[in-house]
Write a structure and sequence with these properties.
71 residues, alpha/beta, three-stranded parallel sheet, 3 strands, 17% strand
């Protein structure tokens, strides 16, 4: 019998995350889909906005400083 696998931690990066646009909404949907599948997504972008707040409110960590992302 094998031990259950840990959730996969996935870093999703986008060059901007400050307005509702195609790539921003794709990143949001991807992060929420991974989360609902039991994985552990993390989002990074140097510029944040309301979609970042939405993800944080749903339990997905969002960072604007890559150095703050820990393994």
């Amino acid at each position: 019998m094998t031990a259950p696998a840990r959730p996969l931690r996935v870093l999703i990066a986008n060059p901007w995350f400050d307005e509702f646009s195609g790539s921003v909404l794709y990143v949001r949907d991807l992060a929420l889909g991974l989360q609902s599948a039991g994985e552990s997504p993390v989002v990074y972008s140097p510029t944040l906005g309301p979609v970042a707040d939405e993800l944080r409110s749903r339990g997905v960590p969002v960072f604007s400083d890559i150095a703050a992302v820990t393994p």
